[in-house]
Amino acid sequence: MGVQALVQRPLGRTHLTVTRLGLGLAALGRPAYITLGREEDLGDDRGVAAMRARTWAVLDAAWARGVRYFDTARSYGRAEEFLAGWLRERGIAPGAATTGSKWGYAYVGGWRMDAEHHEVKELSAERLRRQLDQTRELLGEHLSLYQIHSATVESGVLEDEGVLGRLRALRAEGVAIGLSTTGPRQADTIARAVEIGTFDTVQSTWNLLERSAGGALSRAHGAGMGVIVKEGVANGRLTARAAPAPLAAAARDRGVTPDALALAAVLARPWAGVVLSGAVSVEQLHSNLGAAEVGWDADLDERLAGLAEDPETYWAGRGALAWA
Predict the structure, then answer these.
(1) Average pLDDT over residues 205-225
(2) Which of 13, 151, 172, 180 is deepest in the core (most CB within 10 A)?
């Protein structure tokens, strides 16, 4: 892995230090998710014990490679529980790694593949209070960053003084506060968060297909916020199993995997503080982390510029992905 990905550095204006590549647990903590190819990646055994063992194996591999940022959420099934158990079992002291979690969605899938609904969103002060207690019960002093999950301007959460006041109090207790964004109006949400000035970090989707938040993320970075980038391989659409032809060809020419090249594109953005891998196997993780060895340049920027989609088209396609 490249030296720059291993070096721990401050995340925006926070007291937190991170490596530029992190691990997100959205696809590891629950049996069903919207990543392409889960049948091939996970097989039929999606029991709790099997998913815990898989999560711990990926966490062990990430730690061995120098990854020191781990991202989870209340809605990621048992991801907080798996992460907390791993931190305890491996004897990792609070502060040795930076751990971010999120509140706002509740996991309601009942560990079933065929659940009618897998998560339900509610961005209320009461849910913040309840889920923060649950997160702290599991992660304790390991909780470094707490984020609103999928904030939007239209939800009203960014104007809710009950929420903002509790988050400010949490920050006074030593936990950084942030928000994640979603949907075709990510840029509007980021701009409002910058204007409010309350948040330490923002986590957003940016990849070769969905680039619309780039300008807003640059401005957030300029305002001192730490930027975390999720879905860098577009839920599997930018991996070997589904890569658009131009990406696949460019990866072959550079002698790397499509996912590594896609993540290298994100690492090349000067505003990107942490870029998340969403790997569900050790092999996928190693492939993702290959991004740190890829030299991104203007030729690749030009060659792959045509992959960008209209945001409405991108998010409609993401919303149509099946839970599997």
Answers:
(1) 98
(2) 151
